[in-house]
Amino acid sequence: MKLALLPGDGIGPEIVAQARKVLQRLGLKLEMREAAVGGAGYDAAEDPLPPATLSLAKEADAILFGAVGGPRYDGLPRAKRPEQALLRLRKELGLFANLRPAQVHPQLAAASALKAELVAGLDILIVRELTGDIYFGEPRGIRAAGDGGREGFDTMRYSESEVRRIAKVAFEAARKRRKRVCSVDKANVLETSQLWREVVIEESKSHADIELSHMYVDNCAMQLVRNPRQFDVIVTGNLFGDILSDEASMLTGSIGMLPSAALDASGKGLYEPIHGAAPDIAGKGVANPLATILSAAMMLRYSLGQEQAAERIEAAVKKVLGEGLRTADIHTPGTRKVGTGEMGDAVAAAL
Ligand code: NAD
Known about the structure:
By secondary structure, the protein is α/β, with parallel strands linked by helices. It folds into 2 domains: 1-102 and 255-351, Isopropylmalate Dehydrogenase, CATH 3.40.718.10; 113-252, 3-Layer(aba) Sandwich (Isopropylmalate Dehydrogenase), CATH 3.40.718. Helix content is 40%, strand content 20%. The protein has a 10-stranded mixed β-sheet, sandwiched between helices. The longest helix is centred in the middle third of the chain and has 16 residues, at 160-175. The protein starts with a strand and ends with a helix. The structure holds nicotinamide-adenine-dinucleotide. Residues 11, 67-70, 83, 86, 255-256, 272, 275-281, 287-288, 291, 329 line the site of nicotinamide-adenine-dinucleotide.
């Protein structure tokens, strides 16, 4: 199995190094190669996604991405900015399905913005369509309006095939979990959502073992804070998913713990923590590597067919949290504060 490791900027190299350590401990045949991306790509080749990095990503079976960005690069023209690397990778590799789990480890329930009893043991997966919807629909623009002022307009649009393929990803992900999918739309108001709902229902006929329900997006936003544990997999479009996945990540209270994936039609994917390059703590050895380590577990599950290895990593993370080890971002009185490397070593040792 060929892996491309793209550490990037800020805390990226520190946290990806911990994931590498953990992957090496599994005893699998993994060929890992690293390349510069983001600001590091710009420094090396004046391009946030140098050609050599793109070809490594294309040749790999899966990509583990750290984070990109930092104040040093904020003044660059748009095409040279670090985040362009991610946008271009998504486009070049056809990564249309964004998987964002939100899990609350029982030991960390007190970190949530919600009451611990509402979120302890929470385990939901948001499947967001990533390449369509109102973010990409044409026509769009700002034009003269009839009243003498201007008007802004965008086009919400989804084709049947786009809805079908994201629905399929959600049903297949649910099969590896608790076998329930909730499709979120606004079918009471939007034509796009009406078609979305019809196609999801059609696709569900090929996944008869999965229970399908539907929810309007406004209700879902409310249910996520009222009773989030009712959900297993939530599937939704790009716009609604953008908002709901950020809301769901806050349920856990800890940005340093959450992994994510972006998958193509054949299951190849790019895996990354949801947080950024954290320039404020870069190089200090205090960053939490668990989101990246858990991203590596997702990579084994969704792109490499190694469910057992994924579960071993997740169990190892639970074990070290159970033993009271905490990086600074999740540290509470009575637990033991450790640095980035020590946390990585502890997870590898727990394997
Ligand atoms: P951020 O996620 O980098 O940091 C937000 C806060 O969370 C900071 O206080 C940081 O110290 C803390 N934090 C983040 N990850 C942590 C970890 N693993 N352990 C402990 N604490 C952690 O977001 P930001 O500050 O808005 O952005 C910083 C830079 O990262 C910017 O250049 C931004 O463009 C970039 N960024 C990149 C990505 C990506 O690569 N996918 C995502 C978001 C932001």
